[in-house]
Amino acid sequence: MAALRLLALTTLASALTISQINGPKYLSPYAGQTVSNITGIITAKGPNGIWLRSPTPDRDDRTSDSIYVFGKTFGANLTVGDAIVIGGKVEEYRSNKDYVPLTEIASPVLERKISSGNEVSPLVIGKDTVKPPTEQFSSLDGGDVFAVPNNVSLISVRNPTLEPKKYGMDFWESLNGELVTVKKPTALSKPNNYGDTWVVGDWKVTGRNKRDGLTMTNKADANPEAILIGSPLDGSSNPKTTKLGDELAEIMGVFTYAFGFYRILPTTALKVVQSQKQALPSATSLTSEGKCDGLTFGAYNVENLWTQSAHLPKVASHIVTYLKSPDLIFVQEVQDDNGETNDAVVSANQTLAALTAAIASAGGPQYAFTDIAPSDDKDGGAPGGNIRVAYLYKPSLVRLYKPNPGGALDANEVLDGPTLKYNPGRIDPANNAWTASRKPLVAQWEVIGKKGKGEGSFFTVNVHFGSKGGSSSLHGDARPPVNGGVEDRMQQAELTAQFIKAILAKDRNARIITAGDFNEFAFVEPMKRFAGISGLEDLDEVAGIQDVERYTYLFDMNTQQLDHMYVSAAVAKKGRKARYEHVHINTWVDSEAQVSDHDPSVAKLDVCV
Ligand SMILES: *[C@@H]1O[C@H](CO)[C@@H](O)[C@H](O)[C@H]1NC(C)=O
Ligand SMILES: *[C@@H]1O[C@H](CO)[C@@H](O)[C@H](O)[C@H]1NC(C)=O
Ligand SMILES: *[C@@H]1O[C@H](CO)[C@@H](O)[C@H](O)[C@H]1NC(C)=O
Ligand SMILES: *[C@@H]1O[C@H](CO)[C@@H](O)[C@H](O)[C@H]1NC(C)=O
Questions:
Q1: What are 299-314's pLDDT values in tens digits?
Q2: Which ligand is nearest to the CA of 18?
Q3: Distance between Cα 294 and ligand 2 center (Å)
Q4: What would you report as the CA-atom Rg of the chain, rounded to the nearest whole angstrom?
Q5: Do residues 132 and 254 both lie within one domain?
Q6: Which atom of ligand 3 is nearest the CA belonging to 153?
Q7: What is the pLDDT of residues 570-586, one digit of tens each?
Q8: For 67, which of 177, 261, 389, 458 could close a Cys bridge (C-beta 3.0–4.6 Å)?
Q9: Is residue 155 domain-shared with residue 66, that is, in the same domain?
C-alpha cells in the first residue's frame, strides 16, 4: 500500500501527459483531481475554450493525446500554435445523464507559455489513426446494438477499456480532443435544425447504397463508421440544404462529444462540392395489369395530413407521378378533418376527400376511400390530430367484400369462409397494447371482373405501430441503446400476427398483404416475432431487393426501413412474380423539398384465387 501511494505521488510530481489524463478508458483516472504542469500545444480555439495536444504523444491507440480545456476567457491572449503549461481540474462533463461524459480540464490556470508558432497538423482519420470500425458500437452491446432488453449497462458505470479497432464508439472516444481531417467526405444525412450533418470519409464502410448513403443492414450493423459534423468553430453556419450523398469539401476540425453524439467541430462551415447527378428518383416501374394477376399496391406515410395541409397537393402528385396511381394504397398518418384542432372531431372524410380530389386533379384516377375514425384522442400522434390508417382504392377494379365497417371499439374477428366480422374492422382495439397508438385496419377485398378464372380476392392489414419516441442515442450512455416503444411494438406485432394467423388457419392459401409504418427494422425482435407468428414473408426478401437498397427513412447516419410489406405464402409463391420498389422521393431531397418524412413504396402482386 505504502509503496503504491509513493508511486502515485512520484507520477504526479513528474508532470502528467495529456494521454495519461485521458487514460485507456472512457473516464479519466484523474477525474475530480486538480492537476498542474500539463504541457500542450494549442490546436484550435472555440467560443468557450481551447484544444490542447501533447508535444510527447504516446504510442497507445486507446489514449487520446489531446484534450479540451474549458474556460470562457482562458484563450483570450493565446493563439493556435502556442505551447503552454497549464493546471486545472480534470472533469467528466455531460449536460444530460443519458450522454457519455467528456473528459476535459476545467478552471484552467496558465502556468507558463513556452513558445509560439509551433506547427499543428491534423490527424487524417483512417490514415494517421486506426481504421474506423464498421459494425459494432460498443463492447457493452453484446454484439447487437438492437438487442432486447435495452439499457442493460451504462458506459459511465462500466467504463470499459477502449478497443478502437473493434468498436466504433471506442474509436471515436480515443480521438476525443484531437484535431482531425476527414478526406473526401460524403453527406449521409440532411442537416438537423442546427446544421449538424452526418458524414463518412474515404475510409472503408459497410452498407453503402447506390445513393452513397449508409443503410442499416441485417447483421446488427448500424454504421458506427459515420461521424457527425457539428457547429463550426469560426461562428459560421453549416448549409441547410445538404442532401444524402452530397460530396463535401475536406473537413478539418476538433473532436468532441456533445448532445449525445461524438462529433467534429469543423474550423469552418461545411461546403457542398457536388450533389448526386440524378436529383430525383425515377418513378416506379410497376404498373397495374388491371386484373388480379397484376394489381399494384402503394404504401405511404403521409405525415400528419389534413384538409389544409400545405403538402396535400404534393402527396397527391407523388402518388400520381412517382407511384403511378396504384390500385390500392395503404396510407398512414391521416388526421381528422380539422387537423390538430383539439376538439371532438374525429372523422377524416373531408381529409380523405381532399386527398382523392387532389389526386384526380393531378391527373390520377378517382379513388374511393375507407377508414375507421378512432375514439377521440386515443390513438396517439400529434394532440388533436387523431391520426389513423386508411385505404384508397380504385372502385372500378376492387371493392370491399360485403362491406360492414366496424366502429372504433369493435374488435374484428375471422369468421368461416374466411370472412371478417367487420369489413373493414380494427384489431382488438381495447387491448392495452394499443394505448395511445393506431389500431391496424383489416379489410377483405374482391377484384371486380369475371368470376371463375381470374377471380381475385384478398385481405389487407394496414398498420402504424407505436413510434420510437424516447429512444436514446446510438452514441448514448445506455447499452444497448433504448429503442423507444419496443415493448409496445412487440405486443402490437404479436396481436397483428395472431389475427393474420387466424385467417391462414381457415385458408392457408389466403392472399394477405400487410403494409404500413411498422416503426421497426425487419431484423429487430418485434418484426422477427411478427414474421414468426404470422407466417408472412418479408416482401423485400421475396422480391429480392438488395439489403442496402431497403430503406424508406433517413435518421441520424442511417438510411433505414420502417415501412414494410409482408405477404402470405400464396402471394409470395415463386410463379407469382411478386415485385416491390421503394421510391426515395423524400430521403433523397433536401429538407425543404421533403414532402413526408417517409418514402413511399409500390408492389405488384398476383392475388388471383
Ligand atoms: C513539471 O514537469 C517537468 C517535466 O515536464 C518536470 O521536470 C518538473 O519537475 C515539473 N514541475 C513540477 C512543479 O512538478
Ligand atoms: C489578456 O491580456 C490583457 C492585457 O495584458 C490582460 O489585461 C488580460 O487579463 C489577459 N486576459 C487573460 C484571460 O489572461
Ligand atoms: C438506463 O438505465 C438507468 C438505470 O440503470 C437509468 O438511470 C437511465 O435513465 C436509463 N437510460 C435511459 C436512456 O432510459
Ligand atoms: C364519413 O363517411 C362514412 C362513409 O361514407 C359515413 O358513414 C360517415 O357518416 C361519414 N362521417 C361523417 C362525420 O361525415
A1: 999 999 999 999 999 9
A2: 1
A3: 78
A4: 28
A5: yes
A6: 5
A7: 999 999 999 999 999 99
A8: 177
A9: no
